[in-house]
Amino acid sequence: xxxxxxxxxxxxxxxxQNVTLSCEQNLNHDAMYWYRQDPxxxxxxxxxxxxxxxxQKGDIAEGYSVSREKKESFPLTVTSAQxxxxxxxxxxxxxxxxxxxxYFGPGTRLTVL
Amino acid sequence: RKEVEQDPGPFNVPEGATVAFNCTYxxxxxxxxxxxxxDCRKEPKLLMSVxxxxxxxxxxxxxxxxxxxxxxxxxxxxxxxxxxxxxxVVRSSGNTGKLIFGQGTTLQVKP
Lengths: 113, 111
Description:
Chain A has no helices and 11 strands. By secondary structure, chain A is an all-beta fold. In chain A, the strands form 2 sheets. In chain A, strands 2, 4, 5, 6, 9, 10 and 11 form a 7-stranded mixed beta sheet that branches. In chain A, β9 and β10 form a beta hairpin. The N and C termini of chain A lie far apart (29 Å). Chain B is mainly beta. Chain B contains no helices and 11 strands. The termini of chain B are far apart. Chains A and B meet through β5, β9 and β10 of A and β5 and β10 of B.
């Protein structure tokens, strides 16, 4: 949604390479999330961060890593240990309260060649 | 059993039709509920939150039945532009804000 940018929009990677997906927000939201979406499946949570310098594993964290050095940024690295990385990756933010909704960036479509 | 289940469809309806989507969730302690809309190859966007009392936004009506752990979305007078995938989303209990997504129901409105 407005205020959340993800880059690049499309990314191609060779097997064995690490790649970092960018997520930046100017909404001043506290929490940020990374999801992956595969065809015909719901979104699955990879990692999330509720505050700067802190993050937690989601349901499918293996083969991924994140950092949260700034409130505005939450990059996701897809490592060579991720066995099936081809997917649509979505970053989301949430203002702060557990009752608040989440807003999504436009996504990055990663393809492993 | 999936935590959030939806009929994937597709639902093919003519313009002007009324269509209803259903969703069930397994965790009775779930805190809040949403419908998101996702267009092809785009990000999900919030359509509406769902409250126990039911809520309406124009042609869209959402209902929640906590006793049956059931959520519905009704679209009246369907438009071509309503064609999309509709995601049922449930916030888990606890303070993580974690959302659980259904796989989505695809709607195709035809002229």
